[in-house]
Amino acid sequence: MRTRGRGFALAGLVVAAVAFGYPFAWLVSASLKDRAHVFDNALLPVPFAPQNFVEVWRAVPLLTWIGNSVAVGVAAAVAATLSSAVVAYGFARYRFRGRGLLFGLVLATMMLPGAVTMVPVYLEWHAVGLATTQVPLWAQNLFGSAFYIFLLRQFFLGLPSEVFDAARVDGAGPLRTFTAIALPLARPGMVVVFVFELRSAWTDLIKPLIYLREPQFYTLPRGLKTVLDRFGQGGESQWEIVLAASVVATVPMIVLFLCAQRYFVRGLVTQHVEQ
Amino acid sequence: MSRTERRAPWLFLSPWLLGFAAFTAGPMLVSLWLSFTRYDMLTPAEFVGTDNYRELFTDPKVATALGNTLFFTVLHVPLQIVLALVLASLLRRAGRAGGVFRTLLYLPVMTPPVALAALFLLLLNGQTGAINDVLGWFGFTGPNWTTDPAWIKPGLVLMSLWTVGSTAVIYLAALTRVPPELYEAAELDGASPWRRFRHVTLPMISGTVYFTVIVNTIASLQVFTEAYVMFYGNAQTEAGRDDSALFYVIYLFQQAFGSLRMGYASAMAWALFLVIALITALQVRASRRLVHYEGEVR
């Protein structure tokens, strides 16, 4: 009975694995085919055409876009991690009037549709003359982000209060207690926030579409959209270039996930199960 | 308590308080005011009363875009939830071997949506796409997913299921928290697998399912990136295309950043906010009947 259930489950998962893995296999394979064979749906790239990756490198400033994506992604992730940790610590460590109400407000902003603030936030960046720079892609993260505040607060609440009391007896001020004691202890939670925000900044298209005008400022997804429009549909029908660029945009995220899988899973689980 | 101690929490909270004023509360007020004006960023905003809101009801594209968005949501959310539940149940039964599969199911979530959209434009292609090849093995002639107005949205729904892994992983975590004694008791009573799922599993994880339904619905009603990448932002492919892939946020984006109709776009945003709030409120009401919270006395 038990083993039959397990065998059935494994069979189902193998079917799912084929269905979910096939598009990746197709993408990588097609990116290595020559133009005449891109659509042949064969699993192996015959004839083998790795020069697609050289061609896309020549055709568009891929290295600039990768550099932009790394810079924006790291700035967004560092800003979100540090600012959210500061705010989360304030909610977790101190009791003060209005704390429950304010924390409720933090949670409420998670439910606010992004479309509502899209236009006025753009107008704000326009008013300060930064609407066509990369600054709006990460600077908002300097002020803490609701989900990450929630997640890190859970971490700080889990720390034993004795360590903080000991620090106070030793004469450490609030700031020193935070930087010397709380931050190092919350490192696993901060890694969760960092990888989540890195993923989210790396894959985002909406903000780059709104803010970035000049190709030399593009992030990879924004650049990839241009590649698709120029070499793909309605363009020169050089799909092998589009697919090679898609592989370049995807691989770093796959590597990030394989290296930090347990942090992603922990973040997701906190997000929903502990509500 | 010293003065520094009393001030400390506000010091720590200050980044969020500033950010809330600058990027949430302030913009909401500005947006509300803008929704009663005509504003193109070149000339000063001009107060027009409720003109923008009245135009929402007469603009046929708003009705089309809202209809498309609801169509997508009604198909996407239930399919996503059911598929995620099935996959999570399989993962839980698979034991240790499930880890590899969990990784594989989650990888699509890491794929940038732009790359995903480019890839599926080809996989869904009516003539050469691999998806219609597979349908052909079973004797079906697949539709033109990317060009036939009747099949564009179902195609987008099909594609959206590829990222079901994020929901499945959440369900898997919820499933592993169900006490095994409950299953053993049900098995002793001779309950069939379906009855065990219906009367043990589902009530125990209904809180998680409820939360994912709400979050998925809010996200679906703002669907943008994949459809935009595949069908918009390219003059050549946009020309002569009908509005079957025009989702609400795509139209809002066009009005704001294409036509610079900031006032009208703001009214559109508030209308969407109301629709989302209304649907969420209905779901919260329904949940009072359907969701079981552990330790709750009825």
TrEMBL record, chain A:
Cellular component terms (Gene Ontology): plasma membrane
Main localization, broad class: membrane
Keyword Iron-sulfur: no
Keyword Membrane: yes
One Pfam family named in its UniProt record: BPD_transp_1
UniProt feature coiled coil, ranges: none
Keywords: Cell membrane, Membrane, Transmembrane, Transmembrane helix, Transport
Domain ABC transmembrane type-1: 66-260
Membrane-spanning segments: 65-89, 101-123, 135-156, 177-196, 241-260
Top-level taxon: Bacteria
GO biological process, alphabetically ordered: transmembrane transport
Cross-referenced CDD domains: TM_PBP2
Compartments (UniProt record): Cell membrane
Membrane topology, as annotated: Multi-pass membrane protein
Similarity comment text for this entry: Belongs to the binding-protein-dependent transport system permease family.
Name this polypeptide is given: Sugar ABC transporter permease
UniProtKB/TrEMBL annotation, chain B:
Gene Ontology biological process: transmembrane transport
Pfam families in alphabetical order: BPD_transp_1
GO cellular component entries: plasma membrane
Transmembrane residue ranges: 12-34, 70-91, 103-124, 155-174, 202-224, 262-282
Compartments (UniProt record): Cell membrane
UniProt keyword annotation of rRNA-binding present: no
Lipid bilayer topology: Multi-pass membrane protein
Family as reported in the entry's similarity comment: Belongs to the binding-protein-dependent transport system permease family.
Protein's UniProt name: N-Acetyl-D-glucosamine ABC transport system, permease protein 1
